[in-house]
Amino acid sequence: MARQLKAETNSVLRACEVLRSFQSRGEALRVRDIVRRTGLHKATVSRLLGLLAEGGMVERTETRGYTSLVEMSAPSAFRVGYASQTEASAFAQEVTASIRQAADRARVQLVFADNRGSPMVALRNAEKLAKERVNLVIEFQTFDSVAPLISSKLQQAGIPMIAIDIPHPGAVYFGANNYEAGLIAGRALGRWAAHHWNGDVEHVLLIELGAAGRLPQLRLTGSLAGLREILPGIPDDRVVRVEGADTLRHSIAAVRKFVRFVRPRNVLITAINDTCAIGALRAFEEAGIGEQCAAVGHGAVRDARTEMRRQGSRLIGSVAFFPERYGAAVIKLATAMLKNEAVPPAVFTAHRLITPENVDRFYGNELD
Description:
- By secondary structure, this protein is α/β, with parallel strands linked by helices.
- The protein has 13 helices and 15 strands.
- The protein has helices spanning 2-20, 31-38, 42-54, 90-106, 119-131, 147-156, 178-196, 214-230, 248-262, 274-286, 302-309, 326-338, 359-363; strands at residues 28-29, 58-60, 66-68, 79-84, 109-114, 136-139, 161-164, 172-175, 203-208, 239-243, 267-271, 293-299, 315-320, 346-348, 352-354.
- Strands 5-4-6-7-8-14 form a six-stranded parallel beta sheet, with helices on both faces. A six-stranded mixed beta sheet has the order 10-9-11-12-13-15, with helices on both faces. A three-stranded antiparallel beta sheet has the order 1-3-2.
- α1 crosses α3 (42-54), α5 packs parallel to α6 and α7 packs parallel to α8 (214-230).
């Protein structure tokens, strides 16, 4: 029921975006114009226009376009570009939904783009948003290698930027306090191992995402430091790093190789995100040694929460970043910047360890 309500809410919000794409009553727009202004898929726009026409809110024109029949209120004070990391990611989907909702409440016109998990697409989207002459860009993309290029293009256009989770030169940062989040994860692993394995740990497996650069990697640095606060005797030669590439498939393949060659026992796993942590667990399970590991992820996205509810899962926790709350904070920050108010160079989201024991207390409505 909760999932159906969320889908219905998203449909209403997208219909509002379609209506807001008409900048004045009587303006005629074709489907492709609305797609460009909203960033919604062509099929979604066509479906919503049909429903809005049926409801008497838009009508078709003789030129195969549409006009709005809604009396337009005062236009939004600000037009903000938002480039999503990839709508194929559960975490990014929650961030996007929260930003759409917060922008709607704040009467901020959002110009959407999907970076599709690609550095080249992210660069092209930055160019497009600059040409759209938006007042500010919220940039959410993974690749540290193109961050300076994106920053340069927007700076040349005189457009300020908020960078989500991955720092960009000159941008205000919003996202995880990576080292602190890592400490939470590492301490949780250490306490679990002390209780269940009497501190007997054979390996520590760190699942990395090299493309994201150094700052997100601090999650793993912090994890190791937090683990060693609890279990100080773990030597460096027992710490193994593998590349997870931010996908379930790659993380399974990387950990599969580790399992095949090491035949491990009592392995603690921490990963750059939940996807990689779950992939590592799957590799252990398919080898028939799922009980020989325990993992903590980062993000506490829905897939991780579902995994923690699974009986016998060795995902003992995930450090929540609360992506469903990003929107309110990011839009508030964007509005302050556009009003020339002083803002800090970095704003961190809240963190909390979500475990099988407390997941329903924080996210119990998912079971409705």
